[in-house]
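Appendix B, record 7
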Amino acid sequence: MMAALPLLLLSAAAAQQADVFVNGQEGYACFRIPAVLQLPNGHLAVYVEGRKYSCNDHDWNDIVFKTSADNGATWSPLRLMWSNSTAAEHVTIGNPSPIVSGGEVVMVFCRNNREVLVMRSPDGIVWGTEPVDITASALGRNWTTSGVNWVATGPPQGLVLPSGRILVQANFKGGAVGNANVGFAIISDDAGGTWRPSATSVMGCNEGQIAIAPNGSLLMNCRTAGYHRLLSYSDDSGESWSAPTTLYLGRAGSNSPCEGSLVRANQAALVFSHNYGAAGCARCNMTLWTSFDSGASWPAALAKAVDGANPATGGGYSALLALNATHTLLVYERSDEQRRTIALRTVRIPTAADAPTAKPVLDGTFGANCPPCREFGRLVLKKLYGQAGVADGVEFRISSAIRSAGPLGKDDNWACPDEDVGCPFTRWLLCALDGWSATTTTQDQRVHFLSCWDEASGEPASKAKKCAAAVGGLNVTDIVTCHAGPKGDALQLAAARSFEQRFPTHAHGGIFDVPHIFIEGEEQAPSELTYDSVLRKLCDAGLKSSACADAALPGVHWRASGDARAPEPR
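Structure tokens (predicted):
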């Protein structure tokens, strides 16, 4: 294991908030893809893509930057780091991933996402006249013959280990890997003079960042094509990377596939920035997540919404910089009704003392007529929810398994486990609980309705009406109207989008594999879906309940049904 990096000891009097770049100003229509750095003289620098004519990913795009001598309170005029465009040829210069090494600033970046380039500066302000093309050495392959057709560095910034080794997370696709992203580390052991790729890579890993975890391992946290993220560890200074584990941040569909930033905040914590939006505004609600166990868990109760009372505020790409032991700087793409900016915020880092207040999360995806799902609901969920302290001490998140064979919005022949085409059971269930909405229904209503539904027999309409009456507070007339009209269509489409984001490998064919039960983001194996196991996992995650003290927990299991009538596999 390697020693932890020393923290950046910037002044605690850093700006609480500021707009560093504003779209449509200083000669550029749009600013995106931030990276933030402490320069050798202690000043701050924010490097971004300046997109001259639009926000398009590929056009006349330059890397531009600003600096601050007062910890972000005020900022210099815009400066150009590098441009390769002319009126006749627009070239995309982007994916800035800067590092301070050997008293200089080393900038690794991309040209047209086809080449990896590097430039050096003694101070991060004055840059050389021409970049060096390191594509072949950084990827370890001949670009023209390997078939690789895409490469991206970071974003955001890279990492320097105590040994002096530079690591820049990057990803490529094409050639033997096809359209799948492959994440890896670009390594330099001579302050950016020469470069090579890590010995192993991480399949499915897109944009990401590497940080030193409190346990001494390196952690790579990267974007995927779906709702989840991937985590991979290295214990040999980034040479090799573990098989990835999956990280789900909160409720299904709560964030879009997007870049995020990961840094070591202090001796105990890692912090991670990412959006945490909802349907209709996926890249919204920029949120800071904290882990006190080297990335093994990221409790939702410790998540801090940066824009507080306005969760609909847009939040896209971001970059973090450890400020001191208690605060971090966050630079991120922010938008509201007035303007779009690259904004800076100073955010307090939760402490370990905050952790006990976190509620453990049980996140379940069910089929409305799936026998194993109903068994779990009757024999585990209902009994669990009835234990003292569980209803108030656990956050239950519930979603539906529903999909279409073709593209969502174009193919509405809905399929659900153990249901006829159209998903009549699921449609009634979604209408009864407004798509499992936590805004219009309570957790008690959702869990009690599901328990009633799992025990009731008969046609879905009669079950919905019976359980709505039993639970209370649910309007049967509204449920019937929803089922018969466009609201039912919209709820099915939203649920299918959520299922597709959450479970991309099950989204358009094959088995549904439900129920999917996650506790604190970790999916439980079928053998673990017992009352005994689920309760113990929740207790270990911080549940305060008298049931946790019971050493003789009964082992009530759900069982897979042998019903062979299911028109769709699970």
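Remarks on this record: Residues 486-502 form the longest helix (17 residues). Confidence is low (pLDDT under 50) at residues 1-12, 551-570.
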